[in-house]
Amino acid sequence: MSLPNATEDLSSEMEVDAFRRLFPLRYFERHLAESIRPDGRPLKEARETSIFLGAVASANGSALVKIGSTTMLTAIKMEVMTPSLESPDEGCLAIDFHMPSICSPIVRPGRPAEAEPVVSKQLSDTISSSGMIDLKELSLVGGKAAWMAYLDIYCLDADGALFDAALLSAVAALSHLQIPAVAMNDDGKIVLMSEEDGQKQAKEQVNKEKRKLTLKSIPLSLTCILHKNYILADPTAEEESIIETHVTIVLDTSGQLISLYKPGGPVLAFTSAIQDCVALTRQRVKELKSFLDQANSAMEFE
Amino acid sequence: MAGKSGTPATYSPSPTTGKKKSTLFKEDWIRPDGRGFHQCRPAFFRTGAVNAASGSAYAEFGNTKVIVSVFGPRESKKAMLYSDSGRLNCNVSYTTFSTPVRGQGSDHKEYSSMLHKALEGAIILESFPKTTVDVFALVLESSGSDLPVVISVASLALADAGILMYDLVASVSVSCIGKSLVIDPISEEENCQDGSLLITCMPSRYEITQLTVTGEWSTPKINEGMQLCLDACAKLAKIMRSCLKESASDAQDESS
């Protein structure tokens, strides 16, 4: 990453690294003028993305997702609850996003990151409003027992676009989730069934076989940052700290808009800019969907 | 979606055929994972797991998986008094899904201070006056011998961050179950142990930074246990050293 030969700017007399730290915005704009980003990417390209399913052996569903250096580990644990009176035939999905202090220098133990509750709320809103999961599928015995799915997302390395990576890992873990086979015993408690004693038990089987959830639509997202007339896809932490205007767009795989976040920032998002962002997201969603399908078919192959 | 207040009480469905603990560890038992009594789990180390940190390391000992990030040396908290030597700050936390029953990992509040005590003797604190080095550990999956694994990985992460140390710190624990000593115990073994012994040492200097003994031990047993741990620590340190050398030579290859 060397700067182009400057003419009379300070940067000609200064080391690149010092210039980058002292004048982050100028450093950044010099790159934009050349249509390239500090990490060598074109403006509208997302970072390399990988999905690995089944990373947590003890969970019912799990996924490890990397977008560039941003790493998310998601695990789902299924527990049993008594459903509420208002919705006796529905289970529940509890989504929590965690930023442990290992993930970034700005998070310290006992002082949670500002982004943590924001991303947590965004994720639950997005997943519930997308209608991806039918909560009725999580019911076991109407009015008596239902599944409570605890979905915990841990950020292991924070390098920008946290929401995108968190959503992708949540969706991937849900696609990997296997609901265990259970039966109800005489005390009305739900117990696991092991494969050997499946037949001989006189218990009432409530979920005969391991099964997967049917995911109706899959929400996927792309975050862009806006600076002057530039649109940059999938920002790194450094870029996010320099530019304050973020737009996050969530689409489902059929291209339907699920949500759009533009939390403040000095750049006004005109219709054309938003349309460009949506177009970028549409492309990215296709790409992410194919990664997800690949990861899932690799699991079946094993 | 489910707020803390309105969350209904939940439980995880238990298997129908629950093994009784007493039957598991009779006279001639074999370890649940089939290891010999004096055989450690295969260890896997990798440095540079977290880019956002100054140094980091990840390790897998069987199903125990730990990640450690090191930040700094950086400015100490404002409230701290002036100090000629550097400060070390440690924190150990668990993911909610690390234990078989969700959310039990937070029971280990004492691990943070034990990690601090195990490491502080090995770090040359004078080399970063007035500043603080933060060592944060996250246990991704817990399956026994968590603390010794955390300590070993933390020393590797410190080395990766370039913090000056007298030597790498390796840590191994031994459980006493009935008449036998088992090294590097898994959770099931730890749950029914009669006593445990944990040694943290700097193998090349042959110095011990921490020794914890709990439960009932006879003198010959303690001697045997300590010898087992020290031998295992020496072997562990070799593996850690080779991991560091590998990542250093990889970095050289990339730059050349």
UniProtKB/TrEMBL annotation, chain A:
InterPro entries, per the entry: ExoRNase_PH_dom1, ExoRNase_PH_dom2, ExoRNase_PH_dom2_sf, Exosome_comp_Rrp42_subfam, PNPase/RNase_PH_dom_sf, Ribosomal_Su5_D2-typ_SF, Rrp43
Designated name of the protein: Ribosomal RNA-processing protein 43
One GO location term (cellular component): nuclear exosome (RNase complex)
Organism: Pisum sativum (Garden pea)
Matching CDD domains: RNase_PH_RRP43
Main location: cytoplasm
Pfam family, one: RNase_PH
Keywords: Cytoplasm, Exosome, Nucleus, RNA-binding, rRNA processing
UniProtKB/TrEMBL annotation, chain B:
Domain Exoribonuclease phosphorolytic: 39-163, 167-228
Location of the region described as Disordered in the Swiss-Prot/TrEMBL record: 1-22
One GO term describing the cellular component: cytoplasmic exosome (RNase complex)
GO molecular function: 3'-5' exonuclease activity; RNA binding
CDD domains: RNase_PH_MTR3 (cd11371)
One GO process term, biological-process aspect: rRNA processing
Principal location class: cytoplasm
Domain of life: Eukaryota
Protein's cellular compartments: Cytoplasm; Nucleus
Residue stretches of biased makeup (Polar residues): 7-17
Coiled coil: none
Keywords: Cytoplasm, Exosome, Nucleus, RNA-binding, rRNA processing
SUPFAM superfamilies to which the protein is assigned, alphabetical: Ribonuclease PH domain 2-like, Ribosomal protein S5 domain 2-like
Family classification: Belongs to the RNase PH family.
Name of protein: Exosome complex component RRP41-like
Organism of derivation: Pisum sativum (Garden pea)
Biological classification of the source: Eukaryota, Viridiplantae, Streptophyta, Embryophyta, Tracheophyta
